[in-house]
TrEMBL record:
Bilayer topology: Multi-pass membrane protein
Protein name: Major facilitator superfamily (MFS) profile domain-containing protein
Organism: Demequina sediminis
Keywords associated with the record: Membrane, Transmembrane, Transmembrane helix
Record-linked InterPro entries: MFS, MFS_dom, MFS_trans_sf
Transmembrane segments: 16-39, 45-66, 78-99, 171-189, 210-230, 250-268, 275-293, 338-356, 368-389
Subcellular localization(s) per the UniProt record: Cell membrane
Keyword Transmembrane: yes
Region (Disordered): 394-423
Main location: membrane
Length: 423
């Protein structure tokens, strides 16, 4: 398995930008849970924590495509330096507001500013697409990125919980801030692997002319996001109701460890099964896994079930990323994946908001039910769009190959149909 990943990491600069990107993405795994914990500890309200987290995630989702276009147009270095400064300002303001128990609206403003982070999850994926040329290598690279994301989600939530509950409530936010600044400094120094800017007048932006398959997986990501948003806050509440709030980060870490393992195993194999079929199967297993969490009677059972549910996360997200990579051109990859992050972000926001209210009115199990509902929605949407995914990613030629090659391996460009008016 390791030989598969070693074959892509031997490319010049690959190890450096992979490590730097991992550090720069620390806010993806820690910022949301750190804000939830900081607000809940300072204001003693899960509903308020859910609202603040939701506002931040909605702004993050809204900024993803514009900042991704900016990155594609002027380059990662030129775009991400000011965006990093904005994040530092917003995160600092959020810490000050929470620690002085300022008004909730000021927390909304602070977290909104801090959520202007840029397309953190797409920067290294765009570099892989720029560096590699084989479809199989890109599949492996995206699986590696998914696994690295899960490394963050293994350690990040546990670290955030320990820092917030045992040391200082805003310390998790501080670690996010430092990680982003240091990681981005190292990443942006790697000029050799940075994709060339597209330029303002190239006319190659996706705009609203999204391939149907990108629309489909973005809507599926909505359900996955609702699952994630409800799960984080529900686990914190479940652990507190059990008298062990400090274990909430450990539970999330175990789920992420399962996802890391699932992602590594999934990416180490080059699958002959069609991509759209793998997407359907992954969503089904994810819905079953997170649905089972609702019935966990205690923390121990929740943790064990969470480990198995986690096995399905990274493969499902890898499939969604790969769908986008198959149907957009290389110079549109950051923007294309940004639509996935929009779907994910909107889902996380509503999942956290709704789950926070359910927990206040009922209990943590109601929040876990919301998480299961999000996973079920993702599966229903995958089934509904299976035909779209199939047409977008299958070759169907005489050789019987299942999956289409990426645009970089085709002579003709990919047709970009306009977005239907009702969407």
């Amino acid at each position: 398995m390791l030989d598969t990943y070693r074959s892509i990491l031997i490319h010049p600069g690959a190890k450096a930008f992979a490590f730097a990107g991992l550090l720069a993405r620390l806010p993806i795994s820690m910022f949301n849970i750190s804000m939830i914990l900081m607000v809940q500890l300072q204001y003693d309200s899960y509903a308020m924590a859910g609202r603040v987290a939701a506002i931040g995630t909605l702004v993050w989702a809204a900024q993803t495509v514009p900042t991704a276009r900016l990155v594609d147009r002027i380059g990662q270095r030129a775009a991400m330096i000011p965006l990093t400064i904005i994040f530092v300002a917003g995160a600092s303001m959020a810490i000050w507001t929470a620690m002085t128990r300022g008004p909730e609206w000021l927390l909304w403003v602070s977290v909104a500013i801090a959520s202007l982070q840029g397309p953190l999850g797409s920067l290294t994926r765009a570099r892989w697409s720029h560096l590699l040329h084989s479809d199989k290598d890109i599949h492996t690279a995206f699986a590696l990125e998914g696994a690295l994301d899960e490394v963050l989600f293994v350690g990040g939530p546990a670290l955030a919980t320990i820092l917030a509950t045992l040391v200082w409530p805003p310390l998790g936010v501080v670690v996010c801030l430092v990680g982003l600044v240091v990681g981005m400094t190292i990443l942006l120094a790697q000029r050799g692997t940075e994709p060339a800017p597209r330029g303002a007048d190239s006319g190659s932006s996706l705009g609203w002319k999204l391939p149907p398959a990108v629309i489909a997986v973005s809507l599926v990501a909505l359900g996955i996001g609702a699952m994630f948003g409800a799960f984080d806050i529900s686990v914190v509440a479940f652990a507190e109701e059990s008298g062990h709030q400090t274990l909430s980060g450990v539970i999330i870490a175990v789920v992420s460890a399962g996802s890391l393992l699932g992602g590594l195993l999934y990416g180490a194999r080059h699958w002959r099964t069609a991509l759209w079929k793998r997407t359907v199967i992954g969503a089904l297993l994810m819905a079953a896994g997170f649905g089972s969490l609702v019935f966990a009677p205690n923390i121990a059972v929740l943790t064990v079930l969470g480990l198995f549910a986690g096995l399905t996360i990274a493969p499902t997200l890898t499939n969604a990323d790969t769908v986008v990579q198959r149907v957009v051109r290389r110079d549109q990859i950051t923007e294309g994946m940004a639509w996935l992050r929009i779907g994910m972000g909107v889902g996380i926001a509503f999942g956290a908001w709704i789950a926070g209210g359910l927990i206040e009115q009922a209990d943590a199990r109601a929040g876990l039910g919301m998480s299961a509902l999000g996973a079920g929605l993702a599966f229903v949407l995958v089934i509904a769009f299976a035909g779209v995914l199939r047409r977008g990613t299958e070759r169907g030629d005489a050789e019987g190959a299942d999956d289409a090659p990426p645009p970089s391996e085709r002579e003709e460009s990919v047709e970009q149909p306009p977005l239907p008016p009702h969407m």
